[in-house]
Design a protein that fits this description.
Elements: E1 14-18, H1 23-34, E2 38-43, E3 52-53, E4 56-57, E5 59-62, H2 68-82, E6 87-90, H3 105-130, E7 137-144, H4 155-175, E8 179-186, H5 194-198, H6 201-209, H7 219-230, E9 241-244, H8 252-260
Parallel strand pairs: 1-2, 1-6, 2-5, 6-7, 7-8, 8-9
Antiparallel strand pairs: 3-4
Helix pairs in contact: 1-7, 2-3, 3-4
């Protein structure tokens, strides 16, 4: 646990993490509990367990963040229970792989709603509370490298995450100094479903070795970024994009250059 006098302490703060029952969201929620925050997580279905640290347990509230009215009801419920909201982490999102040429309009609209419109609705609801508080508030949007490079197979997802980065800077402009708004670009991350995303263990090792840090990221890397952006250490940071990707992916053209260039003597 973090000492209450530490700059990263969240003691007395209330945090809401969407999609905080599994994956990266669950690790973020756990890290915030470790920092002393009261944490509320949401999802469409109640999980078997919620994040817990040394007796401090997150609270679960069911919510479909794709519905604007549900977002407002969620924030109202958090404030009714705790009297405040200091941090919103817009983490819920994702997309399975699909063919852009044949995917249905309904599917694409659902992906864009989950990854872009839902964070807007959640942020609007949070702002109504945060800007009235003496200590204001902070919003962290979880984006993806898919927002900054081509995203074949998840075109709507990549477009939505790119929109989320634009939304971040726009809200930071509109809502400063009352509410800080930042984003994290998540790189290649090991999760419980890594094989579905990246393939075999051998493929994952090859991907890891292709990054400057020689490993894939994990949820703790992202959670630490969230904690920093929510802390007083980042009190002058707003409208920023923190890239947590271990140095980024090597451009494929460099491999082609090396493969087809004459051998150096």
């Amino acid at each position: 646990m973090i000492d209450a006098n530490d700059s990263l302490s969240m003691a007395g703060k209330v945090a809401l993490v969407t999609g905080g029952t599994k994956g990266i969201g669950r690790i973020i929620a756990t890290r915030l509990l470790e920092a002393g925050a009261k944490v509320v997580v949401c999802g469409r279905n109640e999980p078997e367990s919620v994040p817990e640290v040394e007796g401090s347990k997150a609270e679960f509230i069911a919510c479909d963040v794709r519905q604007a009215a549900a977002c407002k009801e969620l924030v109202d419920a958090v404030v009714a229970r705790h009297g405040r909201l200091d941090l919103l982490v817009n983490n819920a999102g994702g997309s399975p792989g699909v063919d852009a040429a044949t995917v249905s309009p309904r599917f694409s609209e659902s992906i864009i709603t989950l990854n872009l419109t839902a964070p807007l609705h959640m942020s609007q609801a949070a702002y109504q509370v945060m800007h009235k508080q003496p200590e204001r508030g902070s919003i962290v949007n979880i984006a993806s490298v898919a927002a900054t490079r081509p995203s074949p197979g998840t075109a709507a997802y990549g477009a939505a995450k790119a929109g989320l980065l634009s939304l971040t800077t726009s809200l930071a402009q509109e809502w400063g100094p009352l509410v800080r708004v930042n984003a994290i670009i998540v790189g290649l991350i090991e999760t419980e479903s890594a094989e579905l995303t990246y393939g075999s263990v051998e493929a994952q090792e090859a991907i890891a070795n292709a990054t400057p840090m020689k490993r894939m990221g994990n949820g703790h890397d992202i959670a630490n970024g969230v904690l920093f952006l929510a802390s007083p250490l980042a009190e002058f940071v707003s409208g920023a994009t923190l890239q947590i990707h271990g140095g980024g992916e090597k451009p494929h053209f460099l491999d082609l250059v090396q493969r087809y260039s004459p051998q150096q003597v």
